Amino acid sequence: MSFQLMTDTTSDLSFEYYETHDICYLGLTVTMNGKEYHTEVKGEIENDWFLKQLQEGAEPVTSQINVGQFFEFFSQYAKENKPLLYLAFSSGLSGTYHSAVQARTMVLEEYPNAEIRVVDTKMAANGEGLIVDRAVKLRDAGKSIEEVETEILALCPYVRAWFTVDDLHHLVRGGRVSKAAAVIGSLVNIKPILDVDPEGKLRPVGKVRGRKKSLKTLADNIVADLPNSEEQTVFINYSGDKAAAEVVKEQILAQANVAEVLLFPLGPTIATHTGVGCVAVFAIGATPRV
């Protein structure tokens, strides 16, 4: 029996990608200036317009996908008796995963034979997207839902993420890093380097002087732990600075013979917490995150 792959819009793949690869999705909600925007609705909130609002001082907030939304969505597949594998936004950054787990329990009470599997990717943005992409390849190769889930669970700890932001204001405002950590970014021309820890939380891990050095550090760090590079697809996200993402891409390609490097803009949910100027790079590492 075939199965349905599902994710959420925090994976920051394009709507075209979801449609082409038959991936269903839900989205978190962004509230700005008293208005709610639903990130799963194509065209409701455009990236360029949203980044302009951030530059003009807007301070949006995000809301997780709630239990009711998941219950309604999961129930559709339970009624059709179609297995569903949901690859979720990191539980270290949102309550979305826990909402999905609660909804799954409720659906199984009503449809005890339903097959709904929920995986905490402990990743965000294209780190989550990379995991979705791997699941697509496994599914398309004929793997069963059980096989895909098993391989994805084994893969998740090895997904590496390195990113930099122009400043830590939005990450502090959203509670993703501490105020003490923000001191790093307050120094003149000092750029923070962050990663994602084993629990799926963001953490500052270093600082460098200048934007150029910060971008080189992203490329160097991802290449330093890149096994079987010729088989790897590296993902790069950016918020408002595609040229910087292209620089990182070029630096990676100069050091490693990777299969491809894909660039996607950060969506509004993640950009709410990074601000304008974030660049993030993701790949499968040789060693698990520690």
UniProtKB/TrEMBL annotation:
Keywords of the record: Lipid-binding
Keyword Lipoprotein: no
PROSITE patterns: DEGV
Single Gene Ontology MF annotation: lipid binding
Signal sequence, start to end: none
Function in brief: May bind long-chain fatty acids, such as palmitate, and may play a role in lipid transport or fatty acid metabolism.
Protein name: EDD domain protein, DegV family
Source organism of this protein record: Pilibacter termitis
